Amino acid sequence: MDHLTRVREEFTRQAETFAASAAIADDQLTRRFQDAIGAAGAGKILDLACGPGIVTAALAGRAKAVTAFDATPEMLKKARQRCAKAGHANVHFQLGNAETMPFESGAFDAIVTRLAIHHFAEPKRVLAEMFRVLRPGGTAVIADVIVSEDPKEAALQNAIEIIRDPSHARMLPDTELLSLIAKAGFEVASQSTWDKSREFEEWMGIVNEPQRVGPLRTMVRALAEAGRTAGMGLKIEDDKIVFFHRWRMVAAKKAG
Ligand SMILES: C[S@@+](CC[C@H](N)C(=O)[O-])C[C@H]1O[C@@H](n2cnc3c(N)ncnc32)[C@H](O)[C@@H]1O
Fold first, then answer.
1. 167 closest CA partner among 158, 155, 180, 175
2. What count of other Cβ atoms lies within 10 Å of the Cβ of residue 151?
3. 240-253 and 235-237 beta bridge pairing
4. For labelling, which of 8, 61, 88, 103 has a CA lying 20 to 30 Å from the CA of 241?
């Protein structure tokens, strides 16, 4: 199975649970995008790998137009429903692959992408495409979960994530993410980082695949009990498996 087929298979099954997740729909998270996008948020926006349109809907109120772009039809259906419910008539929904975008060069004033870089087989190629379709002077807001700079801890966290969801390609350490953004041609305008607490059962519920839960729970609990944090603060608290996702958000400019 090629990677994009795996992405579509996973997110078709996850569409309902992902869209309904309080941790994902968190207003505090979407407000960070409204703040980071700045003046470009009033223009033409691309929400790349938009999923169920949570960020799309949060930005559509101020935007001239938003293109919600994703590889999974079921996710686009959720995005369409969310935007219709919020009364946003300025959103266009488009199916496609982020690695080869069907847009003219310089087509957008702003591009946002949340929780998607780690699903791309070739993030370097996607960042080059983002740079191409952004207009000179435009802003890209890139936010994803990052892993430890320690290669062993990073490999362990990525292994856990891939067992949970095989469409996960690789979360990057901060230095690698920033280097890829710079190599694509962007200039970093602002950046922030924060930790979001997660709980194993809630996090597993989103993938909507009960067969994966038991074996992964056993493995992750054993790691936590052995003091292996996997670079994500893995531990047992009140008999629950808890950890954090470390987010990195970068607002980057294309010189104009
Ligand atoms: C974890 S979800 C994030 C959705 C949304 N950005 C959010 O944060 O709510 C990842 C999304 O990326 C999409 N995706 C993954 N690889 C893609 C690709 N190569 N091209 C377009 N979309 C892709 C999936 O279909 C899925 O909807």
1. 158
2. 11
3. antiparallel
4. 8
Residues with CB under 6 A from ligand 1: 4, 7, 11, 24, 49-51, 54-55, 70-72, 75, 97-99, 114-116, 119-120
Q: What is the pLDDT of residue 1?
A: 83
Q: How much distance in Å is there from the Cα of 238 to the middle of ligand 1?
A: 33
d(CA 184, CA 190): 17
Give the pLDDT confidence of 112-133 residue by residue, as tens digits: 999 999 999 999 999 999 999 9
Domain 3-151+166-197+245-253 sits in which CATH superfamily?
A: Vaccinia Virus protein VP39 (3.40.50.150)
Please tell me what DSSP assigns to residue 117: G
* pLDDT digit string, tens, across residues 163-187: 999 999 999 999 999 999 999 999 9
Distance CA 79, CA 87 (A): 12
Q: Is the pTM of this model over 0.85?
A: yes
pLDDT recorded at residue 224: 98
